[in-house]
Amino acid sequence: xxxxxxxxxxxxxxxxxxxxxxxxxxxxxxxxxxxxxxxxxxxxxxxxxxxxxxxxxxxxxxxxxxxxxxxxxxxxxxxxxxxxxxxxxxxxxxxxxxxxxxxxxxxxxxxxxxxxxxxxxxxxxxxxxxxxxxxxxxxxxxxxxxxxxxxxxxxxxxxxxxxxxxxxxxxxxxxxxxxxxxxxxxxxxxxxxxxxxxxxxxxxxxxxxxxxxxxxxxxxxxxxxxxxxxxxxxxxxxxxxxxxxxxxxxxxxxxxxxxxxxxxxxxxxxxxxxxxxxxxxxxxxxxxxxxxxxxxxxxxxxxxxxxxxxxxxxxxxxxxxxxxxxxxxxxxxxxxxxxxxxxxxxxxxxxxxxxxxxxxxxxxxxxxxxxxxxxxxxxxxxxxxxxxxxxxxxxx
Length: 396
Ligand code: BEZ
What we know:
Elements: H1 3-22, H2 26-31, E1 35-41, H3 48-64, E2 68-69, E3 72-80, H4 85-98, E4 103-105, H5 110-123, E5 126-129, E6 146-148, H6 154-166, E7 171-177, H7 180-196, E8 199-206, H8 214-223, E9 227-231, H9 234-246, E10 255-258, H10 266-269, E11 277-280, H11 289-302, H12 308-326, H13 334-343, E12 346-348, E13 351-355, E14 361-371, E15 374-385
The structure holds benzoic acid.
């Protein structure tokens, strides 16, 4: 049994245990000073490995913090959201209304997170987003109680517009899933690429999480663009690079993407990903002490290589640890808590980063090349990139 499978089974047991716990009399809850943490992440489907990595990264930081946040023990309530927007409202309500979590952590999928954002805004529950890049979460829908430790969809894709133009490409085809993250990534890439003078020959979309790539690859071959930009992640990314290489296009029409295309996926992608260039806020070989220590601890505990999702989960816990320590674990004064969370400087494996006014990381975006089983950093594509945060009006 793989470590990942075993871990997901443990999570399943944890989820049912927490469901039982939720039925316990409220009296038991009042006795407990435990911090109630709700994890809403995908543990099945195309993004299953991403949800697992986030959870594992969170656990590494929690262990380093002695298993406590703000001096309080932690009790987990876990939901597999299946990356299914249609179930998102019910799933988030289950954690907020039934399990009465103090903090909601999730999720991976941009469509699912927007339901969580609405519930966080409606109920005032603290929400920490450890992946989903939906721009609106820290733009028009930003709020004092919503924080993100990952990226906006705009951030990793934007620098690639410049990188590809500078590499001499002028006519590009884009391909992605037709949902928030895909559409916003392509839009961001296009904005930067066309600003430089490049042209988009064709924008192609398929429904999430469909992996029937063949008709699109056939069309790319006949259009013969200078290069291709894609957004895919998880299981879909593995299938895409394999299909692209199998069609004989890898060495004919260069393939680029935001770094999700090759993160957490390299072992499965094998030769199909070798040499691919991507842009992301993390790279396996980042030379800092924190990254080395984190990767060692993660590999030792879980028997797999850390990836960007694990880092984002780790940072979600660092954010809570730092913020809650400053207010001694109390949610009594929300203003003081959010103020403390805003001020935490995250000493992350990706490099030190700070929170923007809209509650999104201000961070370096790295240019990476796949070498063996690693996304090696070969440069900084954009230093300290902040999201434009258009439309964010933070109400006190
Ligand atoms: C998203 O849906 O926001 C997303 C999913 C996987 C990787 C990156 C972004």
